[in-house]
Specification:
Elements (H helix, E strand, L loop, with lengths): L14 H7 L6 H12 L12 H10 L4 E8 L5 E8 L4 E8 L4 E4 L3 E3 L8 H5 L1 E4 L2 H15 L4 E6 L9 H13 L8 E5 L3 H8 L6 E5 L5 H7 L8 H15 L4 E6 L7 H11 L5 E6 L13 H13 L3 E4 L13 H15 L23
Parallel strand pairs: 4-7, 7-8, 8-9, 9-10, 10-11, 11-12
Antiparallel strand pairs: 1-2, 2-3, 3-4, 5-6
Helix pairs in contact: 5-6, 7-9, 10-11
The chain binds iron/sulfur cluster.
Iron/sulfur cluster binds next to helix 4.
């Protein structure tokens, strides 16, 4: 398991902690630093309002946390994915997705994940450690630099890890992204695979963020298999917690459903899913499963995806088929890291490696883009 670094990064410090750190310097230095880090979002070295010796001291004592290992850009440039090395040895992923009128950053909350969902590359690799507030926030800062003029308006906690298993750091990041970046709560989405205590804590928190539940199965037998945490927090209790969230926050819960060929894409699955989501007036996002190394099951073919979506709509459910973005750049959760590890193993052994189906994994070479 990777060790968590003992020294904080500069993005771990809130405004008060920065003021404490800068005690003895003119008080306007706090504002200059805060503006450079968050309003301008530039690298510490480029905050030229600060004296060079102070920048050098900060860079040495409070270094940033993300060291880029791989950057992959999709064919049309609408999706960028990074694999970052963290201090202490763990690796995490971040994805930037451009849409017509906005850009969204999908961020990781843990290195690895302990939830063990069988269809997920991250789940297969296991848990390494929780991320800190700074490590979560810095992912957005680095992505925003690359987005440039394209406004990053939405943040989704849907990368590696189970956000509600790292509640305090995730909430600290939510507050920072809201307060320092000005991202409204309705543009911040926290996903969960169904940790009920975390959902209840989120319902009592101050900001009405969006809650997205990764459901994937709508009966306990199938869900116990696909999402093992369901054995501890079964569906009926999870659905109760979602109703309570909706009642307390006035925000509709959304549900993610990775469509897997022959597993959860039958008419009976659509009926069970509708029975849960229709009373909640919830939105369902249907995402054909990205192929995952080592997991032989395939995503539902496009025609049956459309049939499933139509059936849900006829059952009164608000459903959207999400584009499977970045299949060409390993954009499914944990794939870039899994494939990078496979390539490293291949380098070490001199032999190609791949998933259980014997396919050889190809890692895209890093495309260096300056500041990211
Ligand atoms: S799907 Fe999400 S909760 Fe499940 S193992 Fe993967 S990262 Fe963890």
């Amino acid at each position: 398991m990777a060790a968590r670094p003992t020294a904080p990064t500069i993005y771990d410090l809130d405004r008060e902690a920065i003021a404490d750190y800068l005690t003895g310097t003119p008080s306007y230095r706090v504002e200059q630093l805060w503006q450079g880090l968050y309003t301008d979002g530039v690298d510490l070295a480029d905050i030229t309002t600060l004296p060079a010796p102070l920048r050098a001291e900060l860079a040495e004592k409070l270094p940033s946390s993300l060291d880029m290992s791989v950057e992959s850009v999709s064919e049309h440039g609408d999706t960028v994915k990074w694999l970052w090395n963290l201090r202490g040895g763990a690796a995490i992923e971040t994805v930037l997705m451009h849409y017509k009128d906005r850009s969204t950053v999908c961020i990781s909350s843990q290195a690895g994940c302990a939830m063990g969902c069988g269809f997920c590359a991250t789940g297969q690799a296991g848990f390494e450690r929780h991320l800190t507030v700074g490590e979560i926030v810095e992912q957005v800062i680095r992505a925003r630099r690359v987005a440039g003029e394209r406004r990053v308006s939405n943040i989704v906690f849907m990368g590696m890890g189970e956000p509600l298993a790292n509640y305090d750091a995730v909430w600290g990041a939510v507050e920072r992204l809201h307060g320092a970046f000005g991202i409204s709560a309705r543009h911040l989405t926290v996903s969960t695979v169904g940790l009920i205590p975390g959902i209840r804590q989120l319902a009592d928190a101050s900001l009405p963020v969006n809650l997205a539940v990764s459901l994937h199965a709508a009966n306990d037998t199938l869900r116990n298999e696909m999402v093992p945490i369901n054995k501890r927090y079964p569906l009926a209790d999870l659905v109760d917690a979602c109703h309570d969230y909706f009642d307390k926050k006035g925000r509709r819960v959304s549900f993610e459903w990775a469509l897997i060929d022959g597993v959860n894409d039958r008419a009976s699955d659509a009926h069970e899913l509708a029975a849960i989501t229709q009373p909640l007036r919830a939105h369902v996002n249907l995402i054909p499963l990205n192929p995952t190394p080592g997991y032989l099951t395939q995503g539902t073919p496009p025609e049956r995806v459309r049939e499933f979506a139509t059936l849900l709509t006829n059952l009164g459910v608000n459903a959207t088929v999400r584009k499977n973005r970045g299949t060409d750049i390993d954009a499914a959760c944990g794939q870039l890291r899994a494939n990078s590890a496979a390539a490293e193993a291949a380098d070490r052994s001199g032999k190609p490696t791949g998933g259980a189906d014997g396919t050889v994994t190809q890692i895209n070479p890093p495309t260096r883009r300056g500041s990211a």
